[in-house]
Structures are given as C-alpha cells and as structure tokens.
Amino acid sequence: MSKKRRIFDIDLPEEGETFPAGKPEAAAGPAPRRSPMAAAISENAASLRDRAQIEAQIRAENDALAAEHVRMKKLGLIVDLVPLERIDAEKLTRDRAAGADEDLAELVASIRDIGLSNPIRLEMREDGRYELIQGYRRLAAYRQLLQMTGDTDRWGTIPAGILPRGEGIDQLYRRMVDENLVRKDISFGEMAALALAYARDPETEQSDPDKAVAELFASAGYQKRSYIRSFIKLLDRLGRDLKFVQNVPRALGLKLVAVLEERPEVAEQLQAALKGWTSRTAEEELELLRRAAGAEPPAAVKPTATAPVARPGKAKTVFQVPSTLGQAKCTAANGRLEIRLDRDFSALDRRRLEQALQRMLDGLED
Fold first, then answer.
1. Residues 69-116: pLDDT tens digits?
2. Are residues 325 and 293 part of one domain?
3. Contact 247, 187 (CB under 8 A)
4. Most buried residue, 148, 212, 219, 251, by CB count within 10 Å?
C-alpha cells in the first residue's frame, strides 16, 4: 500500500524582495520583564544613593548645630540646672558688702511666685564643681528658699549659664561688674571695696586701686569713676572700722573724704569711736559719720584706749606654704591675710577651725 504524500504551500518571494538579516524586530508592546535579581540590584542602588544624600544632609545639620553650640557656650548662653551644693563663690571678691541684705526677702518672694527670670553665670572648674561669676543674690535667694522649704526638687538646682574654662580673672571681674553697674542699689562704698579687693587679689596683675577702677569700671562714666576713687580714700582711712559702708550716701562720703584730708585727726577720732562698737546699727554709724562730716568731734560711744590705726597701704605680699592639706596660696596686706587652699573649710568643725586660727594668730605675736 503506497503512502500518500503531503503537499505544503510555500510562498516564494517575488522578484526583488529580500529576507531581513538576523532576528526580526520585536513587535510593539510592553517591555519584557526583568529578572527578580536585576530588579533587586537596581532598587538597592537607588536606595543607597538616597541614603547617602540623607546622611550628607544630616552631617551638615549636625556640623551647623555643633558650631552653634560652641558659639553659644563661649558666650555663656548654654543653660543647665546646676545643684546648689556644687556651686562655690570663692574665686571673685563680691561687690556686695557682707551683712544682712534688706532687699533679699523681696527677691525671694519674686522667685518663689514667678520663677527666676535671669539665670546666674558659672564657670566650670577642673574638679567638676562650679565657680559663681554673676548672680550672688539670686544664688542666695535659692539657698534661702531651699532652707525654708526643704524642697530639693524645686529649689535644689538653679538655672545657670555655663562659661567655658580658661577665661582670665580680669575678664571675669569685668563680667561681674558690668552686670551689676545697672543695679540701682549698688553703692559707691561697695564699688570702692571691690576695686580695693581687685587690686589686692594675687591673681590679678593690677595692684594700684586707682588704676583698678579704670579697668573694672571702664563702662562707667568719668564722674562715677571719680566718686569711686573718692570712696577708696574713705576706705583707706576707715575701711577696717566701717561696718555699713554700703549705706554711706554719695554726698556724705565725698564730704567726709574732704574733711579727713583737711583734718587727719578726725580719722583717729572716728576709729576710736567705732572700735569695739559691734552692736551699732546702720543709722547709728551714719549719724556718727554725719557729725564728723560737719566738722564736729565724733562722740565716742564706747571709749577705748586703742592707739591710732595706720592707714592701709597698697602693697601686698604673695607667697605659698606647703602643708599636709596641699600647697596653700597666701596673700598678706595691711589688715588682710588670705589663705587659698583646695579644701572645703565649711565642712570642718567650727571649734576646731577657731582653735587652729587662734594658734596661728597667737604665733604672730612672738
């Protein structure tokens, strides 16, 4: 049986028609799908580019913030809550005279009711404690509030601007003075006492009180500096005996200085009247000074046989003494002996401290 052959129709190209070389072009339509691996690689590359851009932006922002932080820190504008027990006020002599502050009660009430409007200024020490630069009364108010209430959560820390370490002692004094020059209640007696303390401070380069006035109170007018220098003359003669120099009005102080320069014996009379009169009030002391300024012999409220006291000089002696507690830095001047040591003397028993000082003072008479 014979097999039947199949016949296929083949269309041959017409004359002049050619076949295309290679693969025919793909028909128009959607692009072929990529493999999952190729898609993952592409997406990862795009993600890495985006991440690199974000990281660069974050680094730029952090650098800007760090630069701003450094700038603000140099200006003392970085504020933190600092525990009161870590704050000392020993580096600078304060321009606030020692004694009762009649206006402190008002400041305490204001801070208790509305809070602290202006942070204090501190300098961080190498031992981790802080040294007060500005804000003595604000710090005193916080300490009083803590003592009154016992509320350590509210009054145990105080807002403070932290100054960087290393600023010169002269500049720190200027910071304190310039802030307090705007105080209406700071007296010429207090400013004169600060100038004297500045000149006697072994850490400062200036030992002349008159020149110290020019450096410390450069922001003040010429007339005010002249008044401060006049009160320095008053403190030179009576500073060791005056208890309420911060209460002496400008007019009385200037008149009294003129009387003392014209009649030096009046200074001796005042010294004799003030010696041992520890129970006097500010008004009683002022009345005594008014009589002296009126050229009337000051009445000796408590007569004593004390010899005239020599005028304090401007010289000072600075020396160091080794001890079991460390190297003590000492400053000796007329009417003043200062000992600086890295030790919290307030933590010592008072009786023990008094006995040590008594032995030292008795030894000076040998």
1. 667 666 656 788 999 999 988 777 665 555 555 667 888 888 998 888
2. no
3. yes
4. 212
